[in-house]
Amino acid sequence: MNDLIIRPATENDIEFLVDGMRAMVRHISDSADSNYAKQLLDNLQVPAEYFQTVLAETHQHILIAQEQAMPCAFIHGLVASPSILVPTAAPVGKIESCWVDQSQRRKGLAQQLVSAIEIWFEEQQVSAIELSFILGNIEAEVSWAQLGYRPFRVQAAKVLKKS
Questions:
Q1: How many structural domains comprise the chain?
Q2: What is the pLDDT of residue 17?
Q3: Which of 23, 111, 122, 155 is the most exposed place for a label (fewest CB within 10 A)?
Q4: Whole-number Å distance between alpha carbons of 28 and 92
């Protein structure tokens, strides 16, 4: 991994980001314990315009890991209100997504991307970072725990019968 570079995403990365997000959604859907999560994920659309908007906003940041000039992973962070809304709470960093191509896993890319986005969050003067993952995605649970992230809130859902 001598040629690994981590850099900000550009408009030229949008196709990779869309493909990566689709692959991530398939992976999560396959590992989800929840029919509700599977249903949501199976219907998720990832338009290129979404990433164009993200790249234009200063409170959001996407980093690309590339090896030998080929993108192989990304992380998307943003500055937002904490998930538990307290009127006086300072903004937090939120990791919206992190994807490493299947062929590049177990090489420390996620750890390097997380470290890089944590630096960006520090520069944005946030004091905490939140993220979420789908219950049953053991790979995510283990990876995030190894990087120091601990669950603090649980969301639950119930699918209502169609009338």
A1: 1
A2: 95
A3: 155
A4: 25
Please state, in angstroms and rounded to a whole number, the distance separating the CA atoms of residues 75 and 113.
6
- How far lies 38's CA from each of 30, 83, 84, 143, in Å? 8, 23, 25, 21
Asked if residue 55 lies in contact with residue 15, where contact means CB atoms within 8 angstroms, the answer is: no
The pTM for the full model equals 0.86
Contact 65, 115 (CB under 8 A): no
DSSP state of 94: E
CA dihedral 54, 112, 5, 73 (to 10 degrees): -50
pLDDT tens figures, 106-116: 888 999 999 99
**DSSP designation for 60:** E
CATH number at residue 81: 3.40.630.30
DSSP 8-state symbol, 123: H
Q: What's CA 59's distance to the chain center, in Å?
A: 15
In a domain, 83, yes or no: yes
Residue 99 belongs to what domain range? 4-146
Classify residue 139: in a domain, yes or no: yes
Residue 163 pLDDT: 52
